[in-house]
Design brief:
Elements (H helix, E strand, L loop, with lengths): L1 E6 L2 E5 L3 H13 L2 H20 L6 H10 L15 H15 L4 H12 L12 H15 L8 H10 L5 H13 L11 H8 L8 H6 L6
Antiparallel strand pairs: 1-2
């Protein structure tokens, strides 16, 4: 590992391992600049939030999880029939097993990606799981915005810009799950499809219970 300053006043430990370097190359070359820059920001913001919370985490695992967390939005996963989070987690699992990482490390990364849009649970799990969600929530939703100093935030965004990010990430979410709307039942992506896909009807949990084949 090495300490790498991402900008003036920001000193974040960035992995310098074969797996981390190859994850960077893979995501940069296969996802496009929107997801690449977002994923890198998720790592930096997650790492800074980990420091704020006094959490000890494995930078390599946090980094790989952050880099793969939105891979499931890509075209190759759009007919999988699975939640995009699971598709991304499965890709990360294959990648890490190919690099010989221990199964417990693979499990942490898989869980971090699979749960990154499920609020209220990751924060109570391993630091890597908690901090991927923290990084995503910071970059996409602005949760805990003032927890990171403005100078640090500006340095990270200068390194990984976010032009028109709000509209573009919502477009990416829409396209990523449009072909498998059933996977949005009970999760935040139903909000996205309801807002952007004409004719989409979200699943109703109460109706599902009442209309089940059970008599009572």
């Amino acid at each position: 590992m090495r300490a790498s300053a991402v900008g003036a006043g920001v000193d974040v430990v960035v992995p310098d391992t074969k797996a981390a370097r190859e994850a960077t190359e893979l995501i940069r070359d296969t996802t496009g600049e929107l997801v690449y820059h977002h994923s890198r920001r998720v790592y930096f913001f997650g790492a800074l939030q980990g420091r704020n919370r006094g959490l000890s985490f494995d930078p390599e695992l946090l980094y790989v999880a952050a880099m793969f967390h939105d891979v499931g939005l890509g075209e190759g996963a759009r007919r999988s029939g699975r939640r995009f989070e699971v598709d991304g987690a499965e890709e990360a699992k294959r990648f890490l097993r190919g690099h010989g990482l221990p199964e417990d490390s693979v499990r942490r990364v898989w869980t971090a990606i699979a749960l990154h849009t499920t609020p209220g649970i990751p924060e109570f799990m391993e630091p890597e799981v908690a901090l991927v969600t923290a990084g995503v929530e910071y970059d996409v939703l602005g949760i805990g915005y003032d927890d990171i100093p403005a100078a640090d935030r500006a340095a990270i965004v200068a390194l990984h810009p976010r032009p028109d990010f709000k509209r573009r990430i919502l477009d990416a979410f829409t396209e990523g799950v449009r072909t498998k709307p059933e996977t949005t039942f009970g999760n935040v992506k139903a909000d996205v499809l309801e807002a952007y896909v004409p004719g989409f009807e979200r699943g109703d949990f109460v109706r599902t219970v009442l209309d089940s084949p059970w008599a009572e």
